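Hi R.,

Here's the input for the manganese (II) ion complex you asked about:
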Amino acid sequence: MTDSAAGDSGENGAGDSRPAVYELDPTCTLTDVEVGARYVATVNGVVDYGVFVDVSEEVSGLLHESNLDGETFDVGDELVVLLEEIKENGDVSFDLADVDLEEADVLAVEHEPEITAVADGRVGDHVTVEGEITQIKQTGGPTIFHVADESGVLAAAAFQEAGVRAYPEVEIGDVARVAGTVEEHNGDRQLEVDDVTVLSGEAAAAARERLDEAMAERAEPSAVDPLVEWEAFESLRPELEDLARTLRRTVLEGRPIRIRHHADGDGMCAAIPVQLALENFIEEVHEGDDAARHTLKRLPSKAPFYEMEDVTRDLNFALEGRARHGQKLPFLLMLDNGSTEEDVPAYKNLAHYDVPIAVVDHHHPDPEAVNDLLDHHVNPYLHDEDYRITTGMLCVELARLIDPSVTDELRHVPAVAGLSDRSKAEVMDEFLALAETAGYDRDDIEDIGEALDYAAHWLRYSEGKTLVGDVLNVGADDDERHRDLVEFLSTRAARDVEEQLDAVEPHVEHERLDSDAHLYRIDLENFAKRFTYPAPGKTTGELHDRKVRATGEPVITIGYGPDFAVLRSDGVRLDIPQMVTELNEEVHGGGVSGGGHLVVGSIKFVEGRREDVIDALVEKMAEAELDEELSTTIELDD
Ligand code: MN
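And here is the predicted structure with manganese (II) ion in place:
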């Protein structure tokens, strides 16, 4: 609508200044004109009862002979008319404007198209959409532009010549108007483009502001009540809401998301629900069944931190995606991983590019090292809480904030996460009761955790989306298969653990430390079965649990290989990250690195200094104070 035209005509009509006459662009339609305004017109037909005039290619109307004051016109004559009426049926009538064009202010009017929300265009409609260009993909045929507004993302196909880039002036991030016809393409709506106009200056700023406001509104997370009331959790909730908002916004802006998560039970319980919720939202926003597959990728990380190998792979994938598919670079979401100093090199590598990073983790964090590199860092330790709030518990709520419709599928997941990581959460019983309502007793929940761990082990670096979903029964559709699969995998896992423990048990060395704690050591390189399940981390953990049960007293267990050691402790106040720092200073050329939770972790060192490192480690452990209360430990990284 030409608001300015209406306003000006009113003011100018009254007064001493030159009268305003509008000259319409040929593409102008009825939405661009106003009753009472004057227009430059051309006669296109003469009839008994008057003359027909065009004010644009789209807008014509009758100047009735009663309004002609006896004047006569021929086809092709130019005159100034006053728009008298627009009837409901679209017919337009004009009057003669008593204005000499020579003495008027002639103002050009561009066509202001009616903007259709991308979600509203129906097949067959001719529409103009306005949004941000989020992806530009050159196919062997047309160029495919993705246009995002607050209602969704639509593909728009512009054809110039096979394989030739149409509208080369259009860039990702531009705000543009795309006009065309909505057609059906492989079952999805697609815009067949007539014209693309990149907005600039004030028009672009106004459009951006409008989009920004509308997207911010749509990005708002859902108001959901927590699955269980838990005071300790509440300090983390606002940050989860912020992150849910960012993730929804990321989807609306058409930026891909990459999820990296720890490859264990809790890590899976964190990643799978968030993946499901995001996929649902992506499908709501983007046209096309395949959108989620192109927009969201999840991959496990074997190491308990973001390895250079993983980040290089992710970065390479992202840059290829940009080059090949004209995609934006992704948003990285780290789950049950990513809070520590060991993640810094990977983050610094990403910082060379536009890749925002968010972390949800419950490993002991190094906020001074990582926070500057992160957009979000959700970690219970940053709120004086601890690992008992597991990442799976956090992410079930995160998933519900993104898409509350996933709630019913997730009732058992916090319990699986909690048992997998041996959380001492005060609400574990409530989580287990919640799982009961979904048909799972405690044994079932433990079995799911074991089965997940087993599947994660063999999946190694693969996503295994369907398999993992079937094991956890999230985004899955066959209850019986889920039950059978869990039984099969958890039984195999238990059998493998027994075999491993039977193999190592005769070689476990025991000593009593000065503090009275038991120390158990096992040489995993020589006495454990390698390259099978359970890996060194879990082997050490299972052995440790056995010793805690057998003694009922404080226990430290070290499982070591040529260049690594896995540490578990119960009833002893260890600070593994601190020990790593000290070992590094004390054992010169030891190359010690690692960390994890306070009392559970793994360290690496150079093979030639193994004996010195382990001796120094045992010395530190002997000095550690005992806890008054014996607690069960939490799950460990491989
Ligand atoms: Mn965890």
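One thing worth noting: Residues 479-504 form the longest helix (26 residues).

Cheers,
M.
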